[in-house]
Amino acid sequence: METLLQYTKRFFSEHQNFLLNNYPGITVRRILQELEYYFTFGYESFDHFLNSIYLEDYYNPVTIFFKKLEQGIPLAYISNYRQFCSSDFYINRDVLIPRSETELLVEMSIKELKRIEKNNFNNSNSNSTSTPDSLKIIDVGTGSGCIVISILEHYYPIDAQATDISANAIEMAKRNYYLLNFKINPQNKLKFYQNDRLFGLDSEEKFHLIVSNPPYIKKNADVKNVHTQVRLHEPELALYIDDEKYEEWYTLFFKQVDQHLLADGVFLLEGHEYHIPTLYNMVKKMISNSALHFKECTIIKDLTQKDRFLKFIK
Asked: Among positive and negative, which fits the CA dihedral 82, 41, 45, 19?
């Protein structure tokens, strides 16, 4: 008979090629970390858990865990959580798995909110004790809610909204907001709406910050570059736009952003490294034709020096 630790090591050895193809960089240690989170939650000694006798059984949750590994199911969908910024977010296959590069979108958002507050709300009278108005932000395509909730955890006062075309995604974001609300300053507010992009907003509603990690993969042209795990397991609605609708989709979105962004407000967009330069050139052309009114448009690279984000200031 084997202990769970012995079984885990043997499992990794026997399935190593498959595991590395489906979980790049995975190690025995990473599998053990997932087991610790998923099965113990601090209620018992994990060392004791690992050194207990493991008996493979169809109904054993640990057996189910390893069977899902054999199927190539993403770790985050097995454990139903992913750490993002400083919090654990509950997720399932209704929403994208939060990526580490998207944390940069949160960092940039907080930096821009500080800039906007300094430029617009700081009172020249240093003796003033008045409370500044809340900054208004909206997260478009919120998914698990990881972006907007992480912003709210680190900055206040904010009056926030979050939208998603998927009703299931909205329910997931609401659940995470409920679970993580204890980490958010009570001066902050957040409301959720099921909408595509910025449809459904009052025409006069304006924001200091619009942030979005929308679908950005061309359904046919880019599919060969999509990792198998992503293609098989993550929600198509959050990933793909039909090739022939790609430019039209973003043109309309940029016009909506322009309509709903306050003067000196900022729009932050995460996109595909292949298409960010094209979208940048599209926006510059629309600005020159007076179809958009941004005074600044910038491409920002991610930590691997790939074109990943666009920043527009109105």
From this structure: negative
Mean pLDDT, residues 222-242:
94
Would you mind telling me the total number of residues written for the chain in this entry? 314
pLDDT over 50 at 124, yes or no: no
CATH 3.40.50.150 domain range(s) in the chain: 100-123+130-313
Whether domain 100-123+130-313 has CATH 3.40.50.150: yes
| Euclidean distance between CA atoms 212 and 162, whole angstroms | 10
Find out whether 146 and 69 touch, Cβ atoms under 8 Å. Answer: no
The closest of 158, 144, 82 to 114, measured between CA atoms, is: 158
Give the torsion sign (CA, 6, 74, 59, 42): positive
Strands 135-140 and 207-212: parallel
Distance CA 265, CA 92 (A): 33
| pLDDT tens digits, 51-68 | 889 998 988 889 999 999
Residue with tokens 């298409």: 275
Question: Which token pair is 269?
Answer: 């967009």
C-alpha–C-alpha distance, residues 198 and 5, integer Å: 50
- Rounded Cα–Cα distance for residues 74 and 97 (Å): 9
Q: Is the pLDDT of residue 129 over 50?
A: no
Query: Among candidates 194, 62, 210, which has minimal Cα distance to 139?
Result: 210
Pair of tokens at residue 304: 């691997």
159-195 confidence digits (pLDDT tens): 999 999 999 999 999 999 999 999 999 999 999 999 9
Beta carbons within 8 Å of 190's beta carbon, 6+ residues apart: 148, 149, 152, 160, 161, 162, 177, 184
**171 burial level (CB within 10 Å; 0-12, 13-18, 19+):** middle
Q: Which of the four pLDDT bands, split at 50, 70 and 90, describes residue 41?
A: low
Q: Is 207 helix (H, G, I), strand (E, B) or coil?
A: strand
